C-alpha cells in the first residue's frame, strides 16, 4: 500500500503527541512535517518526548504545505487556529482531518462548500472515540421515544471551548429526529445566571471542568416514572487514536466534507 503523507498541527499538545506516535508507528502513514507555534526549522526528534521521530517543524503552515506536500493534515490545536488551518489545507489541496473543536454551524457550512468546490475529502470529528460515537447514536435512538433530555459533559480544566464539540454534536443528532420541545416549567427562572446551562434547540447542556478528568459525557432522558442515562468515558487519549487512524485512511477516498465519525464507521 502506498503510504499516506501526513502533517500534524499541534504536535506538542495532549492529543497531538498521541497522534505523532500513531502516525510514526503506522506502516502506511508517513509523518512529513509538523506545524507548531515554536521551533521553526528544528527536527521534531530534538524536542522532549519525540526521540527518534524525525519530521521538520514549521511555524508557517503555507510554507509547510508548499515544501512537504502532505496528503492529509491532522489538526489538533485551538478553535481559531483549527479553522484557519482547515481552510488553508483545502486551498492547498491537502485533506484535513480535524479533531479540534469549537467550530460553529456556520464554520462547518463554509468549509463544506469549500471542500465541495475543491472536490476534496475532509473530516471534522468532534470525537474520535468509537464509544463516544455509539453514545451519540444511542442517544439519538432514545430521543425518538424520550423527548426530554439534558446533556452533562465533563472535561479536564484546561479545555478552551464550552460546551464540548461532542455535546453540541449530540444535541444536533437529537434535534435532527426529536420534535422541537421547550423543556422544564414554562415559568422557570434562573436566580443565578447560567443555572440551567446552555441551550441547543431546547436541549440543556451543562459543562463541568475539573482537574483529573479527561473526557466524559452523560445524556439523561426523563420519562413517565423512569429515566435513561447513556454515558461514555475516555480515561486516556489513546481512546481517540483508532478514530484518527480510520479518518486519515478514509479521507483519502472522500470528495466532500464529513462532519462526525458516525458517517464513516460501519
Ligand atoms: N476530536 C476528538 O476526539 C478530540 C478533540 N480534542 C480537541 O483537540 C484540540 C486539542 O486538544 P488538546 O490536545 O487537549 O489541547 P492542547 O492545549 O494540549 O494542545 C493544543 C496544541 O496546539 C498548539 N497550537 C495552538 N495553535 C497553534 C498553531 N497556530 N499552530 C500550531 N500549533 C498550535 C498549542 O501550542 P502551544 O502549546 O504553543 O499553545 C498546543 O501544543 C481541542 O480543540 C480539543 O477540544 C481533544 C480530544 C479529543
Ligand atoms: O478537549 C478535549 O479534551 C476533548 N474535546 C472534544 C470535544 O470537545 O468534544 C472531544 C473529547 O470530548 C475530548
UniProtKB/TrEMBL annotation:
Pathway: Amino-acid biosynthesis; L-lysine biosynthesis via DAP pathway; (S)-tetrahydrodipicolinate from L-aspartate: step 4/4
GO cellular component, one term: cytosol
Pfam families (alphabetical): DapB_C, DapB_N
Source organism per UniProt: Anoxybacteroides voinovskiense
Gene Ontology BP terms: diaminopimelate biosynthetic process; lysine biosynthetic process via diaminopimelate
Record-listed NAD(+) binding positions: 10-15, 99-101, 125-128
The protein's name: 4-hydroxy-tetrahydrodipicolinate reductase
Calcium in keyword set: no
Domain Dihydrodipicolinate reductase N-terminal: 4-128
Domain Dihydrodipicolinate reductase C-terminal: 131-264
Subunit (UniProt): Homotetramer.
Keywords: Amino-acid biosynthesis, Cytoplasm, Diaminopimelate biosynthesis, Lysine biosynthesis, NAD, NADP, Oxidoreductase
A molecular-function term among this protein's GO annotations: oxidoreductase activity, acting on CH or CH2 groups, NAD or NADP as acceptor
EC number(s) recorded for this UniProt protein: 1.17.1.8
Location(s) in or outside the cell: Cytoplasm
InterPro entries reported for this sequence: DapB_C, DapB_N, DapB_N_CS, DHDPR_bac, NAD(P)-bd_dom_sf
Amino acid at each position: 500500500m502506498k503510504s499516506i503523507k501526513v502533517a500534524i498541527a499541534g504536535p506538542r499538545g495532549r492529543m497531538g503527541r498521541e497522534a505523532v506516535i500513531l502516525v510514526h508507528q503506522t506502516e502506511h502513514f508517513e509523518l512529513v512535517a509538523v506545524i507548531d507555534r515554536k521551533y521553526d526549522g528544528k527536527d521534531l526528534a530534538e524536542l522532549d518526548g519525540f526521540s527518534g521521530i524525525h519530521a521538520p517543524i514549521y511555524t508557517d503552515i503555507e510554507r509547510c504545505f508548499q515544501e512537504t506536500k502532505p496528503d492529509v493534515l491532522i489538526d489538533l490545536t485551538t478553535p481559531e487556529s483549527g479553522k484557519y488551518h482547515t481552510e488553508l489545507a483545502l486551498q492547498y489541496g491537502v485533506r484535513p482531518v480535524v479533531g479540534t473543536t469549537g467550530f460553529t454551524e456556520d464554520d462547518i457550512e463554509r468549509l463544506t462548500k469549500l471542500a465541495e468546490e475543491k472536490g476534496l475529502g475532509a473530516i471534522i470529528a468532534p470525537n474520535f472515540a468509537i464509544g463516544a460515537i455509539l453514545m451519540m447514536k444511542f442517544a439519538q435512538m432514545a430521543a425518538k421515544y424520550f423527548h426530554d433530555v439534558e446533556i452533562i459533559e465533563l472535561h479536564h480544566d484546561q479545555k478552551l471551548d464550552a460546551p464540548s464539540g461532542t455535546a453540541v454534536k449530540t444535541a444536533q443528532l437529537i434535534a435532527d429526529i426529536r420534535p422541537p420541545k421547550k423543556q422544564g416549567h414554562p415559568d422557570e427562572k434562573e436566580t443565578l445566571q447560567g443555572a440551567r446551562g446552555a441551550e441547543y434547540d431546547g436541549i440543556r447542556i451543562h459543562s463541568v471542568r475539573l482537574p483529573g478528568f479527561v473526557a466524559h459525557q452523560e445524556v439523561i432522558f426523563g420519562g413517565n416514572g423512569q429515566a435513561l442515562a447513556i454515558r461514555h468515558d475516555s480515561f486516556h487519549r489513546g481512546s481517540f487514536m483508532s478514530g484518527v487512524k480510520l479518518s486519515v485512511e478514509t479521507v483519502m477516498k472522500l470528495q466532500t466534507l464529513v462532519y462526525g465519525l458516525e458517517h464513516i464507521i460501519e
